[in-house]
Amino acid sequence: MPTFEQFKLPDAGEGLTEAEIVQWHVAVGDEVTVNQTIVEIETAKSLVELPSPYTGVVAELLVAEGDTVEVGVPIIVVDTDPSGATSAGAPATEPAAGEASGSGAVLVGYGVAEQASARRPRRGSAVAAAPSGPTAEPAPPVVAPAAPVAVPAAAAPVRPAPSGPIRALVSAATAGRTVLAKPPVRKLARDLGVELASVPATGPGGIITREDVLAYSARSEPRTLATYAGDDSPWLNDAGTGSSVTPDGRQTRVPVKSVRKRTAEAMVQSAFTAPHVTEFHTVDVTKTMKLVAKLREDREFKDVRVTPLLITARALLLAVRRHPDINASWDEAAQEIVYKHYVNLGIAAATPRGLVVPNIKDAHRLDLKGLAQGLSDLTATARAGRTTPADMSDGTITITNVGVFGIDTGTPILNPGEAAILAFGAIREQPWVHKGKIKKRWVTQLALSFDHRLVDGALGAYVLSDVAKILEDPAQALVWG
Q1: From CA 470, how far away is CA 474, in angstroms rounded?
Q2: Interhelix angle 210-218/183-192, nearest 10 degrees
Q3: Over the stretch 283-294, which tens digit does the pLDDT of each residue have?
Q4: Which residues are catalytic?
């Protein structure tokens, strides 16, 4: 008799209450194994891949792509005994994955150790090793794929009967899958920040093709524009966002959710809680541009990307070391100022999913090459939509690089919980008075916004001036570093 198990949507981190189903990696009738990725979900903070807690055959997908689901709601049904190996009448007593008595659903470990329950061993089957994690719960047995198994239509599942028909064929294509791809395809995946194990293969023998990687990556690209009869200009319409076009074709309405919703809430909270002040500085960065060119030719930096942002990040870290009061937060509940003894350097990143601000943990401990690697990893992860809630938590100070869009400067809004944010503008060649003569120099503009409850104008000016001094003459970093 089949044994049906429901997988309930777990909390992907930091107490989030809902998530959107982005893409299913399995279909009804597919065989799955423990820890195999089955679905991508998007929370208010990140894109997360959920692994299967069961081995078996997918009996039903309970929610569709694009649906928003609350934590604890069943999203998939897995038949963990499609061959009927378990004796008839043996009840499935294990709580559904992601469920724990007296506790909210959690992602890591699918529960808490104190309340973990052991699955009853199945006769005639080997028990797979338990996945690592807090619960150390025995995993369900691995059901060896056999000939296609017909599921009796009258079989009574433990859960309520599924609303849709259950496919009779079992596909072992994704079970224990080995990633097959040629070196050029693997390189393409690395360049695009795509994890090959997540890419559906269409090539012969299950090989991942270039087209497979590009198609997978395209889902993270900006949405396409569509035009309608009578429009003065093209308007956005993408079914994947739940958007709808008004009958007259003059408006598109898109629900506010996920990352954009979270960003909006955070920015409103920041703008109307912390009194913002912004100071500006125009800087000759010609020597910084020369240093960047030299580093790009240096063998020590051949494996990392070197940009002016790297030097700016280093300059800000040195300024924080000289003026640690800038690295603080305001605790309203405790009525305390919290000074951080570490720097988690945030880098604002514009992605197709909206603005995210992941941070480089303990950036103050990194040398220049380590900082360059941290920036490269952070950028690649953000562009691939793989930034996790942990990547964005506990930031202490942030840089927003508006210069990549050709913008000279701006008045950035503080990341909530931080005292300052630095806007780094576009670098342009322009006339500049240098050593008493007008010469063509590389020039940029810096803008530092800060929380005036924590930072007064003098402290903000000192920090901004120190950043500018290093960009004007990077050798100054040797004196302060």
Answers
A1: 5
A2: 10
A3: 999 999 999 999
A4: 452
